[in-house]
Design brief:
Blueprint (H helix, E strand, L loop, with lengths): L9 E5 L4 H11 L5 E5 L11 H17 L4 E4 L2 H6 L1 H8 L9 E3 L2 H6 L1 H4 L4 E6 L1 H6 L1 H9 L4 E6 L3 H6 L6 H17 L5 E4 L8 H7 L5 E3 L1 H15 L1 H4 L8 E5 L3 H11 L6 E3 L4
Helix pairs in contact: 1-12
Length: about 280
Amino acid sequence: MDDKSSTGAIGVFDSGYGGLTVLEGIRAALPHYDYIYLGDNARAPYGVRSFGIVYRFTLEAVQYLFSMGCPLVILGCNTASAKALRSIQQNDLPLMSDPSRRVLGVIRPTVEKLGQISRSGHIGVFGTPGTVASHSYDMEISKLYPDFTATGHACPMWVPLVENRESMSDGADYFVKQEIDRLFADDPLIDTVILGCTHYPLLLDKIRKYLPAGVSLVLQGEITGASLADYLRRHPEMECRITRNASCRYLTTESASRFSEMASVFLSTQVDAEHITLG
């Protein structure tokens, strides 16, 4: 499986369930390819873990997907993209048996779209505590758009609301409105908001309800799908290594039955998950 000529599915990794929203966006844009989704649910959430732990866990997941034959892995997790992607790309991939394999994240393609959306140049970023503390969005925005101002805001209650199936409850309104109000108190000129966690689209109706009029939302699933399609057009040497049977396998480090049950919250279809072990 480590042969440079090997072909396989596109791997999509997330610390839990949220990356399913990215997978859905990718499959909508590129339905003919094969996919393997891996959720490290047993060790989630990553958002409150240290840089070192997130890096180690993410590297283990990437290596597992490589061992399954994936020539390309997408980190559908903002925390993993923020805390582990650069180290894996720069330090680990060149030393692996097949350095032509690739690992991509969700932060850069998200930021690249801002120039087409924002008018004021003031950007808000909702994310987990880990993603916000990493300042990855701030740094990427600063690189691509030096005149833009980024304001990150951690929403520690939003992921638990989604994973406990409370995203449509009246109680969720309180926490969604509270964080939106706090973000705009920090910068009232914000006209574009990034949902910097893949769980947050499950709160989309409530976020739109309390967001000030005229503010644009940036959703990662659709953007990542379009960005990946463009990447494969520009890299035919990678595109030809991806198999095309329109299939998708779901792997989890937690209970397979629980994953299958929870996945139905994020996807419009039932899935049959398989249990695996990392580390």
